[in-house]
């Protein structure tokens, strides 16, 4: 792969958005992925039942092999089925399935729900969509034909499950999925709403950490990144062993400010999220990756030829920023890494905000792993495609990834369900206007608990 050190003067400020555009729609044959060679093991879940509902559990055939499932139907079922998509479960061989965070509430309100382990781990969104859809289609068979068909089926998910929930209602998914389900509405929570951006972000942050930490690489992938990581962290943070890290050098603060600009701009809670050691470690653990999403693709998906890295807020890059961008390693994504496929969904299914049903999202402002910028990119795509009238977005004043409290989950679910059932469109937050997002009280409208380290919202 050709590497260049491009002049910063020619870089385009809108590069992150442009790099998220969908590839040209033409199908091509591609070689077998590493993901296709992996073996996963599903087991019947041990999840106990709760009062007032019947719980069904077992195994069924999925995209990659067997998957496990849970289906729970209340005694007084209202006829509606909510499919729940779980988040990233790592790279182990064992598959697991979990109930939705608001399981008890769903049952108490008469909703049936179902969840799959998916038939594979890793960041396999294609498997997540197909397996969740297949489970929805088999609701009757797997509940022993005791119930009528659902009057409506909905989908919600967290993190990677939010990616699945968003992609599941896309026009391209409905056209190309093997198992087709017309969901009545979608609720992606803390979700990857712009998949190319997520892997752009992970690549950009680790590249800049290496450069600013004094160990800038001249090759991509940076195979020595994880070996050098202790020294990289030592050059940027005063203590990277505790729960909260503090940048302790000019380079460390520049890394923080570059990260702020890459993840949604100035906003409350960003700095706290940046300092959360668990999130830093999660992002830095991806450093040195080869751009194939750990074998989900066969070619490099990451490129930064047009990226501009800024630690200031002015319209024009400073001389120091220009010099820095000239020095940073540049590499190019392979345009054929994630093309449409003839055998179903893309390996990383597309999200273009092309949907025809109500979608409600919720995101924490300090999330450093799946940044708030996902919400901004998603709305920009919706505005471009004329679907913003079907989108409501909410910001929560918390630093963690998917750090929602029960009241926030329940309020979002109730508003979403009323809207999807013919009620009025709920209110949401403005995620695009910089002055609004940067306001010290931003996110107060839907935050229902004050987190440690976060300023309280005044009545």
UniProtKB/TrEMBL annotation:
Q: Which UniProt keywords apply?
A: Hydrolase, Signal
Q: Which GO terms describe its molecular function?
A: hydrolase activity
What start and end residues bound the annotated signal peptide? 1-22
- Highest taxon listed in the record's lineage: Bacteria
Has UniProt tagged this entry with the keyword Cell membrane? no
Q: Where are the transmembrane segments?
A: none
Q: Is Transferase one of the keywords?
A: no
Q: Which Gene3D superfamilies match?
A: alpha/beta hydrolase (3.40.50.1820)
- What is the protein named? Alpha/beta hydrolase
